[in-house]
Amino acid sequence: MPELPEVETVCRGLAGVLEGRRLARVLVRRKDLRIPFPPRFAESLTGRKVEKIRRRAKYMLLDLDDGNVLIVHLGMSGRMVVDSSGAPPAAHDHVIFTTDLGVEIRFNDPRRFGLMTLAPREGLEGHKLFRHLGPDPLTPAFTPAVLSAALKGRKTSIKVALLDQRIVVGVGNIYACESLYRAGISPLRKAGTIAGARAEKLVPAIKAVLSAAIAAGGSSLRDHVQPSGELGYFQHAWKVYGREGESCACLESQKVAKAGKAPLGRKGSSPKAAANKGKGVVRRITQAGRSTFYCAGCQT
DNA sequence: AACAAGACCTGCATGC
DNA sequence: TGCATGCAGGTCTTGT
After folding, report:
1. Known catalytic residues of A?
2. Which nucleotide is at minimal CA–C1' distance from A192?
3. Share of chain A above pLDDT 70, in %
4. Strands across the sheet with A79-83, in order?
5. pTM above 0.90, yes or no
6. Domains of chain A, with CATH numbers?
């Protein structure tokens, strides 16, 4: 489920039920998530008050009243489900928190790529999970100059580079595709060529796509992303992701432009037209083992 | 150093 | 119906 907008949405949803609350009970039902739990994890958390919920990259950070931070990553399939009904645990409910008001927050993660651990708030930026991370795209620290400096000399594709959390955090497979589409940049382009005008387009495109997704409550695929159970609806705003074979908006505008000029009728298709065949249709390719969706007509 | 490929794990849709 | 295959929102490790 989670790229930056989904994690942000989950943080905001959980703030209402967790901030200022004490954890009355913590139950670990399955210990083998991506990394081992620290020793006495449940005991350390029990009785602690959650002061604040923050996000760093795709991690959720719960500041506790003992100076520690509960770090949560949702992996590919993780969810935080709020339940006040006392229903029995579902399959893949690996950790269940119960607040002092009796509300349950269940960490559910079928694939178990997620993780949960504890670390001191002091010096958190130097933690193994965080020290290599690049700038958060929604902060002023993420500028075209910063991005092009990070990409300088890199021969990998811009799509693959955007997924590299050392370059910029929070952008996953969906929003990398959507950002490149919005910026009119081909996912195949070498990362090192993103500078100047291209960086000036890409950085605002990333910020705009992520902000719009947050405003929509994230994208819901198979799961609902909000702890309230509400669905995010940004998936309806995707322009290329998951749209292989569909025509891009640029196709219509091309036709309109052509109709306006309408040169003397020329039969058959010119070599140029043949080369352009299918260019206004969304393609799917594989890069670094992941699907990339783009329009070869308007992304160069 | 930078990069590609493989690994981790489960569920679901598809096609035979 | 059953079975095999491929695919899915992310990172981490290994080997070149």
Report:
1. 2-3, 58, 290
2. B2
3. 91
4. A23-28, A93-99, A104-108, A79-83
5. yes
6. 4-126 (3.20.190.10), 144-237 (1.10.8.50), 249-295 (no CATH)
